[in-house]
Amino acid sequence: MKKQKDTSSATSQVPGGAGLLVLHGPNLNLLGSREPDHYGSTTLAEINRALAQRAEAAGVHLEAFQSNHEGVLIERVHAAREQGIRYLIINPAAYTHTSVALRDALAGTDIPFVEVHLSNVYAREPFRQHSYFSDLALGVITGLGSEGYLLALEYLLSKISTDQG
Ligand code: CA2
Asked: Is the CATH code 3.40.50.1970 the one for domain 17-164?
């Protein structure tokens, strides 16, 4: 099988921790090209760059990863545990509403995470109003576009600085 494209971007290492991982689910690689009414016009690369820059300014290592495949995302979550990732930001995209397997991976690794959605899932079709992740999440940000990722990051950076005392 062709190796999945890893859209990761790494910044400086934080002492004593592997930092943050941002996971993007299926079709989010299309951001900025189609459906701007729902998902805005910012590309995934622009979102990842803004997150990496903000994390770097705080001295925190941040990687981002997108896949259109459930098993690849699950394996990235498993690898995150091996890596010692402290917190995750995840937009599971359509897997939000379908994937017990990805939920179980997050529950099994016990890495605290914030769930982010670009669109307001509660203002859309009823099937988008159930998430397999929200009850496990530290919190959920939905409907604030790409800014939602940055808000999630600000929250986690403040947690990291509190954790470090
Ligand atoms: O609002 C969100 O962030 C979603 O997680 C996005 C998912 C959707 O299935 C969820 O219900 C809510 C869909 C991502 C698809 O992204 C595209 C981006 C550009 C063009 C087409 C699809």
From this structure: no
